[in-house]
Amino acid sequence: SQMLRRLSATTEVVQLLDRDDAIETIYSEFLKIIGKYMMISSAKIYKITKDMEYAEIVSDWYAEGLSADRRATLDRVFCGGKLIDKPYIVSSNTVVEPDVRDMMYERGVKATAVFPIMLNGKVGMTVLFSEERKERSWSVEDIRFMNDAVKVLQSITTKRIQKHSLASSYASLEAILDNVGSGIYVVDSETGDILFVNRYVRNSFP
Questions:
Q1: What's the rounded Cα separation, in Å, for the pair 165 and 137?
Q2: CB count in 10 Å sphere of residue 118
Q3: Measured in whole angstroms, how far is the alpha carbon of residue 66 from the centre of its chain?
């Protein structure tokens, strides 16, 4: 049933939280889970450039049998600093600005749903779900599911950034301690194992 399919897809998405795979693998898996469950044409994750001018493709997924020939034209999308900080949903029958509908028509998109990923208080990435094969009207359940899934992806991304920042902080601290003019070493208080020895100590006791 539809409810069981949604539960299964939700479970698969949540399980990505505990995966230690490369973030690119996580993104790819995420798009595949959502794309197949929603039975849509394509799903993409974009990263916003620092100057907020462009969105660059990070990962994409296409339904089986769909050509990804136009992928190159969508690798880098101009956004000119105009970023949405809330979901932007366009069904086939939605009345939208002419330029938005023209852009969708140009790309063969009949319905789209765009969700922001907030990082450090601003839009850092966007997730785009699209239907190109047929007319589509997103249901309330569709929108809720996609939104909840993107929230999980935001948690995964934030967790990875914090982990990377912590690792960078440790590396910076080690570099500083390695270059001070006195001996420093760190010992595990429980096991007695030496965890770190700086250059001064290494050179003094070769």
A1: 41
A2: 15
A3: 23
Is 113:88 a contact under the CB 8 Å cutoff?
A: yes
Structure tokens at 134: 């047929």
Q: What is the distance between the alpha carbons of residues 108 and 89, in angstroms, rounded to a whole number?
A: 16
Beta carbons of 149 and 30 less than 8 angstroms apart = yes
- pLDDT tens by residue, 97-120: 888 888 888 888 999 999 999 988
- Helix ranges restricted to H, 68-191: 98-106, 140-178
- Buried-exposed string 81-115: b where 16+ CB fall within 10 A, e elsewhere: eeeeeeeebbbeeeeeeeeeeeebeeeebbbbbbb
Q: Tokens 């003019």 map to which residue?
A: 181
Give the Cα separation of 168 and 178 in Å (integer). Answer: 15
Mean pLDDT of 131-144: 93
Sequence-distant (6+) residues with CB within 8 A of 49 are: 55, 56
C-beta atoms surrounding 181 within 10 Å: 7
